[in-house]
């Protein structure tokens, strides 16, 4: 083979912040801090301070490949750690603080974290946990001397003091791009969490895909609100892709309630916001309750929704009340996470809003780099007809091949990873998730999509949230049970709900019963916790069952 004669420069995460500091030095990073006030800095500041972080870690004796953990909200110091830790060759391990303390303990010990950086909010958590984190040599609270907490955490260091002693005169080391850069554990609902170990190369390639027009279409003209947390799949890669494209980043810190998010959107003239449906539900409820006029007050143009399915009713609300286009996206921790993005094609230009919303309900088309297929239970490929639903398999350079410190590869003979999702793909390549494979409702040998039923139910004006699970049935094996949280002060009966659904879903999909609850259980990443729900309703008898 004749080798090409192009420069062999490694794709390193440090190159992203170097680019931003050179080409977008005054690009702003706005953070709502744990201490309270809004903090403003630039990509140039982040570059300098992340170098100070790298120097400080070197002085602490952190070696390349060692893990350095964070328990932190979205903010500028967290971003400095993204670049400082990975840039010096260590591995940034972002821990989800919403996990149970036992899971955090398991994860930190499994990862053998050497140092742990944390936000002020997590002082009580670490007071309880610190003694059980056997590999951790030091705890660094991400604040300044004035806000240093009185606490019992052993060997406590102060972030600002730690980096203040460093010059920032530092040349990023150059090394193999396949080196590990960061680590994120999946929040599986069963068994122990599993570590997904990203590389510099996978992270940089993923950023390119995120920036692309048919990805998230990022550029320096955009002000992006990262509601999606930096402790969950690297905030969908935005701290990297943002630096690559010079996006002005707005970080909400710990304040994710509807009012705080809305106020930040308004005050910072946010044009693009990214988050999971549960946080948008809180935002929409706030807008309703406070009687706001988002279209008049906000500059929001696009909302990226992923992590769970974006119901049509939510996309419609953003479109009509905010004047914002919902970009539905799908991915997973094992995929860095972006797999598909729902952008429109030229042929959709003349579509009515109704027709367009039907497309936006789909999770979208694969970005370049993600090779996607659906197969039946025997592994045979299914047609791309928009109707045949099968197991969704993926492969590509930012998709996991194995879990950290776990047995062997997770790929099949053709190099595909089974996402655990069930989906259809249509002739234009739009993929639609119908379920998690363990959540599909198997009724008389046919599959009923719990997601489709939930999305139909949530369109009812009195419904705040909906979940559908399969309940045992003597004749059909399983039948759908719809579980509803009503909006405050709203009336809704079982009969009215079923009547609303009739005509909106196939007759044989209609739930056999409707249960009303005060709230639904969620996982640490804001998804419906179906396992818990099935446990809660395990003795439930459907009418006629
Ligand atoms: P996680 O690894 O925690 O990010 O979870 C990944 C899983 O979330 C996927 O395998 C899907 O089951 C689900 N998911 C992510 N995005 C979407 C979406 N847009 N619609 C439906 N499910 C989604």
TrEMBL record:
Protein name: AMP-dependent synthetase and ligase
Record keywords: Fatty acid metabolism, Ligase, Lipid metabolism
Superkingdom of the source species: Bacteria
InterPro entries, per the entry: AMP-bd_C (IPR025110), AMP-bd_C_sf (IPR045851), AMP-binding_CS (IPR020845), AMP-dep_synth/lig_dom (IPR000873), ANL_N_sf (IPR042099)
NCBIfam families, sorted: PRK06018.1, PRK06187.1, PRK07008.1
A Pfam family assignment: AMP-binding
GO BP annotations listed: fatty acid metabolic process
Coiled coil: none
Annotated AMP-dependent synthetase/ligase domain residues: 18-404
Organism: Accumulibacter regalis
Stated family: Belongs to the ATP-dependent AMP-binding enzyme family.
AMP-binding enzyme C-terminal domain segment(s): 453-527
MF (Gene Ontology): ligase activity
